[in-house]
Specification:
183 residues; alpha+beta; 4 helices; globular
């Protein structure tokens, strides 16, 4: 006597590759942005938008109700000027910001200066990072929900499971100095 039929083993399904988000220097220029090209892999269910107002190259955002985002935008002004990064954050947030100590974050294979900040509203924590991209400068503004007790460093912000893959996969594309086309 035999028992019930044995079901076949479950199919092995390889995870789907993460969708690659790519902005070319020419596309950026067409949208009224400085010609910077880059690519990254989007994972974790983030919504991807390309603002038409020239404010950012791309915005990744999480579900409603909490802070979870990465905004990739041109840096407004001279990033080498003392206080420029803090001013850019204050202008972006448009609300009181408490700044933390300077830190470093690895972006596209190089250590970059960053710092943690918290906002009182919605208990959000952010980590801005300025990255040279050829002759241009890009601002990466990471944000997550959390207080100083729950998000104590930039590493905690950029290490969020939905944001880390973006940071780790980010690669800037070489641009010629002539017209901003990829080279």
């Amino acid at each position: 006597m035999t028992g019930p039929p044995v079901p076949p083993p479950p199919a092995v399904v390889a995870p789907a590759p993460a969708p690659e988000i790519r902005v070319t220097a020419d596309e950026a220029k067409e949208r009224g942005l400085p010609p910077v090209g880059f690519r990254m892999e989007a994972r974790g269910g983030l919504r991807v938008t390309y603002p038409s107002d020239g404010s950012a190259y791309v915005v990744f955002s999480g579900p409603q109700g909490g802070a979870l985002s990465l905004v990739v935008s041109p840096f407004p002004g001279d990033a080498r000027r003392a206080g420029a990064l803090r001013e850019a954050v204050e202008a972006s947030e448009r609300r009181p910001v408490a700044f933390g100590a300077r830190e470093e974050v690895t972006v596209d294979g190089a250590r970059r200066e960053a710092f943690l900040y918290h906002t009182g509203e919605k208990a959000a924590a952010g980590c801005p990072v300025v990255v040279p991209a050829g002759e241009r400068t890009v601002l990466l503004l990471f944000a997550v929900s959390g207080t100083a007790a729950t998000v104590p460093s930039c590493g905690a912000v950029v290490g969020h499971p939905s944001l880390r893959p973006l940071l780790e996969s980010l690669r800037f594309e070489a641009a010629s100095s002539g017209g901003g086309a990829e080279g």
